[in-house]
Amino acid sequence: MGIGDPAVGGWPLRRRLGVTYTVAATVMLVLVGLVSWSLMRLDDAIHTRSDVLAPALLSSTQLVGSLVDQETGMRGYLLQGSEDFLTPYNTGRTVERARMDDLRRRLADQPDLLGRVAALEARIRAWHVDYADPAITAVRARGPAAARTVPLELGKTRFDAVRAAATDLESGLRARAATARREVNSALRFLVIALAITAAALVALLRLIAWALRSWVTRPIEQVAANARTVASGHLDHIVEPTGPPDIVALAADVESMRQQLIGELGVARSARSAVEAQAEVLRQSNRDLEQFAYVASHDLQEPLRKVASFCQLLERRYGDKLDERGTQYIAFAVDGAKRMQQLINDLLAFSRVGRTSESFVEVELGELFTRATTTLSMRIESLRAEVTAAELPTVRGDPVLLTQLLVNLIGNALKFRGEALPTVHVGVEQRADEWEFSCADNGIGIDPEYAEKIFVIFQRLHGREVYEGTGIGLALCRKIVEFHGGRIWLDAEARPGTTFRFTLPRHSVLVPMTEPAALVHGDGTVSPAGGTP
């Protein structure tokens, strides 16, 4: 049955495969039955030969041997009259009965052989009744001389009849054993032939199933997949041809419907693309304007601010004695505003530069960056007699300038919001599965947990400028730097007393010793290895 056969052309795939599997299963059941029958036949033949005829032959041989022993023992007794000579006779009688019972049991399903056993048993009985038993009785009664009264010719005749019957039984058993041997060989050949036929049929059925799967499933699906790949590569004008069973035809129709839908959506996408490109050009122009603004802010705007601050200070020095207290205060306000404006511009510029490019990323040792940060803050550390320590910090991949700024901001923030005790700041680190978790802990005034997110928003302040100086950009800049490096930063609300900030950085290298030992910056400005956490 092929794909185009009228008999199966409209059959669903499930029905086609079901018929194929049913035919294959029926053939296999017939072949399995044939093999099973062959095995049963071989088993029966082997049983007849090995468990019936071979033991029967052995019993027949032993039976004849027991009869010979009886005849020999009886002759000795007739000559000597001693009971010791009857031992072989009595033993032979016992063996005779056992072997005769075994023959009757084993040959119960062999009537012709059982008849020969009966004939042999009758002749043995006749030998005993007509000759052996009377002779033994006479000798026991009158002594060895009485043996002359027993007709020896009768005994010979009866025992020759026993021998003839035993020979007849043995001949029948051997003939039947030869027949059983031929039956075993025949059954074995038939089993081999049946197994060969079964193996050939199994191979043929497997090839039939493979052909059916190839013709009805894989080949049509491959054709639909090839058409789909052609469409996916950009040739939307390529028509997906239906082929195969109705199920595959329906699949091809769905793919063709998707192609038609893609053609329709492509027109919409092209229109949207033009709009996006126009918007992108607007954004590029806006970026150029922002870069120009940054340049102006960093150069042109800061120069007038410096002039305002300088000339206000000149006014104060030259005309200070002519100004009253209110005028001096106004000049101080102007100078302070200009300086704060200049700091604000610098912080905004630093904030805007973060995240533009990661090309400056290198392997940096945070231990060295910690030393740089404490050097930058050394004057403030010395003036506050603060103690700044760090654990053994790892090597990470990042921008050394930005990471140094991160440490400067966090340590500087801890020094700014200090308490009444001498400030202590400790930078620690813990290794996680795929990142480093850092902490910056101090003994300062602390932060209420309800402001845990607000403090990272640009320009958000929890204290007035008259209490604590700053622009409100420091922690926002820290968050932007950490996120730019693929990490996150947060306030540890459970750490008390003081404030603890935690942040993570991806772990790209193992923990290595710092170029300089973990630093401890003392109030007098000296630096020594850290002795532990604060």
UniProtKB/TrEMBL annotation:
Segments crossing the lipid bilayer: 20-40, 190-213
Domain Histidine kinase intervals: 296-509
Entry's localization field: Cell membrane
One family name in Pfam for this protein: HAMP
Alphabetically ordered keywords of this record: Kinase, Membrane, Phosphoprotein, Transferase, Transmembrane, Transmembrane helix, Two-component regulatory system
One of the record's GO molecular function terms: phosphorelay sensor kinase activity
Catalytic activity: ATP + protein L-histidine = ADP + protein N-phospho-L-histidine
GO cellular component, one term: plasma membrane
UniProt keyword Transmembrane helix present: yes
PROSITE patterns for the chain: HAMP (PS50885), HIS_KIN (PS50109)
Broad EC category: transferase
E.C. no: 2.7.13.3
InterPro entries: CHASE3, HAMP_dom, HATPase_C_sf, HATPase_dom, His_kinase_dom, HisK_dim/P_dom, HisK_dim/P_sf, Sensor_kinase/Photoreceptor
Domain HAMP: 215-267
PANTHER family: PAC DOMAIN-CONTAINING PROTEIN, PHYTOCHROME-LIKE PROTEIN CPH1
Protein name according to UniProt: histidine kinase
